[in-house]
Amino acid sequence: MNDALDVALRLLVVFVVFLTFPLIVGQAEHKVMAHMQGRLGPMYAGGFHGWAQLVADGVKFAQKEDVVPADADRRVFQLAPAVALLPYLMVLLVIPIGPGEGAVGEVVDAGIFFVLAVMGVSVLGSLMAGWASANKFSLLGGLRTAAQLLAYELPMLLTAASVAMAAGTVSLPGIVDAFEWWWLPWQIVGAIVFFVAGLAELQRPPFDMPVADSEIIFGAYTEYTGLRFALFLLAEYAGIVVLCGLTTVLFLGGWHGPWGADGLGWVWTLLKAAVLAFVVIWLRVTYPRLREDQLQKLAWTLLVPLSLAQIALTGIVKVVIA
Amino acid sequence: MSPAAATVSAAQATTTAAETHGFLSPTGVEIAFLLVGLVTFGAAVVTVTTKQLVHAALWLVVALGGLAVEYLLLTAEFIAWVQVLIYVGSVVVLLLFGLMLTRAPIGRSPDADSGNRWVALAVAIAAAAALVWVVVDAFRTTWIDLDGAAAGSTAVTGASLFQSWVLPFEALSVLLLAALVGAIVLSRKTKARTQAQEAAGGTTTASPLRPPSPGPDATRSAVRGAARSDARSDKEGAR
Lengths: 322, 239
Description:
B: mainly alpha, Four Helix Bundle (Hemerythrin (Met), subunit A), transmembrane (chain A)
């Protein structure tokens, strides 16, 4: 009974994190973007600086009619948002935020593989949405999504492999346990490549060609309304949380920091992830959208060679210090 | 662990296992294995029988995911995640990409049936029989000890892959390298020929590599050329 209670409690905590953290990132995006553009952002909902704006948005989405286009493939169309969203919930289960068994939903032996595999599945949701909508803009968006995933999955895997080589394990808590401060300069190229490739996989600006609203009208999500559209949006913000958490755990040392071992480790993890989330928002405000061919060129001619070089460097250093 | 030692320990496990387990009192894991197997089998059958192209690819996701769950139930965690990463995350996405780039109508596409279905069925049954025979002969009544150390953890898999099975592993990587080089050579040659034809005033569809087929039949050859950006022009007709 105690075991069942433990599992239930962990699942509940992860679920609450899954529901709240993306909203916090979304609200932060509203405010940070506004201030970077010299305006205030939402100020009325909830009273204090518009804190309840996203709750109000959620209520609005829930009230809207759920439309399925007449020519669409109904079942695939309706299933797509769930396929896009659920993988991120599963990834959150295995990201450790502190030392020990108590600070992770479930210790998975091959954590890196689990995380990258499941994140890849969520792209299927966008593909299904793009195809099933019976809309040419949606199909274009789906196509671009697939091309982007194929291009950016490789550098992401290679850089993650580099960290796994450095740590000598593929388990996420194991990697953070093995972390030393000098890994930061050692793996810095890998960290940047991983983060950039992750942004591209989430289709965040400047890599948002698949959803480009001014060109193909939000791509795969053109035909979606109401709650299903909200689920796609939630998937994007959950993706930001997952990507920032992963980059923190793999490259920035997770809970390591002053007093990190004395029970304050989770504060460090959350702090580092929050800074990365800020960078994600910052990039959206700063950079224009990359053109489709520029996107592909960046992945194949810059990120892949860089990640291969990082693997070579990791191997050399590893052999030298062994 | 050398193969001989593995066989010996497997033989020991077999003797102990045969005494403590029976087929008539299945555990929860065995029942789950059977049920997931049925789902996987059903999804695989639907994959090859459905008349809707994209649905076939999506049912393939279910079948491959079911296989990953089976690996998990056999304690081979690493293999399970690699299965999801490579097959669901990449191969199916590539398939869908090819379908969408060429022709992926919503609804039935009766012209997508192959005339080779009976030959394919025979080959599939022969392959399945051979695989089942090999697996049954290799493992017989071996049971996996679920309470002991994980038999399929990353460390164990890595050790056996790079100690006992390093030669097949390297042979496979050479094979993949050859395929990669072949793909590059093919794409370069086609491009050079296309440019030569354009210079001569010909069209791309008259390429000797592809039969000069109009719209509907172009699907298969077009999937092969999906990665080529210049293939887009002659597919406009197919839409």
